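#onboarding

Welcome to the new folks! Below is a worked example of what a typical request in this channel looks like: someone posts a single protein sequence, and someone else replies with the predicted structure as tokens. Don't worry about understanding the tokens yet, we'll cover that in week two.

Example request:
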Amino acid sequence: MDGPRQLDEKKMQNSAIPSLSNSTLTKLPSGVKIPNYDRNNLTAGIVHIGLGNFHRAHQSWYLHRLMQQGQAHDWAIIGAGVKEFDKAQRLKLQAQDFLTTLLELSPVGRRVEVVGSMIDYVPIEADNGALIAQMAKPEIKIVTLTVTEGGYYIDPVSKSFDSSHPDIVYDATHPEAPKTAFGAMVAALRLRRDSGVGPFTCQSCDNLQGNGATLRQVIVALAGLSDPKLSEWIEANCSFPNSMVDCIVPATTAKELALVHALGISDEVPVTHEDFRQWVIEDDFCAGRPDWDIAGATFTNDVHDFEMMKIRILNGGHQVIAVPGELLSIETIEQCMKNSLLGPLFKKVILSEVAPHVKAIPSITPENYVDLVHKRFSNPKIIDTTRRVAFDGSSRQPGFLIPSIRDGLANATPIDGLALIQASWARMCEGTREDGTLIEPNDPFWDELQANAKAARSNPSVWLEMSQIYGNLAKEPQFANSFETWLGIIWNQGLDKAIEIYLEV
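Example response:
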């Protein structure tokens, strides 16, 4: 990846720090790479819903890099959100002309770049009127989303669409003024059908295996609840490409804000990220697309093997270390990897219980990918907290780890380490670390999880009976017995002892 030269921090600290905007780009420190294109000449082609750090470090960057090569200037991004908390983010970005500073942190240095591929952000409204109107415009060819793994109203066990969810019931009965991003997309597609504009591509960029197929299921089903003919039109005309996305992007805290400021940039919403990106996309776009492959993305009709390797090993590996790390009061993922127990735990669980169920892809074997992930997790410059990674376990555990448990049971391969992680999660959800400090709520369903975690201390089956997470795994003696054994050891002897026992076997 191209990048600017290293920055002279002392020199920058002694100079005035301009607020980031179009007018101050040329006043930024000389080591900061800035857009070489005229942002005033950009026109929109994409609406992105869910404008968090990951999107701005990943999809937005790929488009920016293409623009830097003189291409895709009619594919600029318009940001959007459907949550009340999105309003603050919109105001911050609006104040700096929708520019974002990216700070790439590698073990040997850092590079700074200002990304300019986003040109607007629609107002957040209760009825999503502005968003619907924007998506209905003829120039919009793609609508992309990063709304988190748990934001698709899909039952994690049955994989079926939850049409009974209150949000979905509301959107079905108020199709012209919906609450959800999916309802807004359906409303916009209705307008496009009725006006003859035609469809747009619906592109999920979330960490879901088969994310395009999942998005198709949600949009088609939701449309069918209020307008079956529209549902049929969407099914026949829209495309939903599957994709795999990969880049470790920590949350922005006061530390990151101070770091960017120290480098000579006044940015209210900067993003730090690792020195690795990957984007693998199914080439299925009904209304055209940018040539992201020129910027480093991979177009393929075989996304599944790529995404399975990444979701099972990287995302699953994150859970293997983050949950125990939270219990042991270890603050960051890098510190987890340095820990004398958690580093070996990661290697053993992933190599012996996850990798055997992952296919090799043309560029790398599962074993080599484990080594790559180990190196990425160990990057000392990436301050990625265990709390962030362990967040939303009710979605991440069934999405990233539990499929490997099912594969292990089906193929008679080990699952004891994965059962240990499930027991660690149950212990974590009790709400205290092993040093007695409190764990603040860290899941949308925290109250239910905490109640079940407390009950599981004396009756472990209570935890596994959460069928929305485990399905029928409570009835699998090998897994249930292993889970019960580990949970007992964790409560009675401590997590360290449980991990030591596992590593000695």
